[in-house]
Amino acid sequence: MADLSLILSPQTPADHPAIEKLDERAFGPGRFARSAYRLREGVEPDYALSFVARVGTLLVGANRMTPIRCGDQPALLLGPLTVDPAFRSGGIGEALVMRSLEAARAAGHALVLLVGDQSYYGRMGFAPALEGKLEFIGPVDPERLLYCELVQGAFEAAQGKVRRAFRPR
Ligand SMILES: CC(C)(COP(=O)(O)OP(=O)(O)OC[C@H]1O[C@@H](n2cnc3c(N)ncnc32)[C@H](O)[C@@H]1OP(=O)(O)O)[C@@H](O)C(=O)NCCC(=O)NCCS
């Protein structure tokens, strides 16, 4: 019988078409107009920190980690995080986030930002960056701009514009 346990593995460019299908279904074409998308535009994700979830050979979830800058500090943008509707509420989303955070910490990263719901990401260590220290690239609900420190004091040190990190594709 086929082994249907969940497997998390680092993303590869070959996963891109399946991930696009998941994202299209979850967010629709409006995803390209989101402020967070602008930070990812033209920047390769850090594949070693971005994971896909598979059940058997089926890709059922994905998370991306993209290098950004917060003022002078390097940071990471988490997302989009997407899980196939048929596989939701089984902990796959949280497992993908925790694996990315663990890998980012091990690689020496200090700060992770995302745009999302505190009611979901709070349990994974994210808090709202409400203090007005960061100026996002476009309109964003301040309550949805969340951060997670991988190194204590990293958020305190971050100040200024949240910008794209330019890395050649
Ligand atoms: C958000 C998402 C990735 C969660 O994936 P998942 O594998 O179901 O996540 P988990 O199993 O870790 O957690 C599921 C729980 O979180 C809750 N949850 C999901 N999205 C939530 C949100 N935006 N706010 C609050 N709670 C949320 C679910 O209701 C569920 O609760 P339950 O366990 O009581 O049923 C998935 O619902 C999804 O792909 N949504 C569409 C895309 C999206 O909104 N992505 C996040 C923004 S980047």
Descriptive labels:
169 residues, alpha+beta, Aminopeptidase, seven-stranded mixed beta sheet, 24% helix, globular, binds coenzyme A
Task: Give the topology, please.
Layout: E1 6-10, H1 16-27, H2 35-40, E2 51-55, E3 58-62, E4 65-70, E5 73-78, E6 82-83, H3 92-106, E7 111-115, H4 118-121, E8 127-128, E9 134-135, E10 145-149, H5 154-157, E11 160-164
Parallel strand pairs: 5-7, 9-11
Antiparallel strand pairs: 1-2, 2-3, 3-6, 4-5, 4-11, 7-10, 8-10
The site of coenzyme A has 17 residues, from strand 6, helix 3 and helix 4.
Helix content: 10-25%
What is the percentage of strand-forming residues? 25-35%
> What's the tally of helices?
5
CATH class designation: Alpha Beta
Bound molecules: coenzyme A
CATH topology: Aminopeptidase
CATH homologous superfamily assignment: Gcn5-related N-acetyltransferase (GNAT)
| Low-confidence regions | none
Radius of gyration in whole Å, from Cα? 15 Å
Mean of the pLDDT scores? 93
* General shape: globular
Q: How many strands, what sense, and barrel or not for the largest sheet? A: 7 strands, mixed
**CATH architecture level-2 label:** 3-Layer(aba) Sandwich
Name the helix and strand elements from N-terminus to C-terminus, one letter apiece: EHHEEEEEHEHEEEHE
Biggest sheet: strand arrangement? 8-10-7-5-4-11-9
Oligomer: single chain
What is the number of independent domains?
1
Query: How many β-strands, per DSSP?
Result: 11
Specify the structural class. Answer: alpha+beta
The first-to-last residue Cα distance is: 41 Å
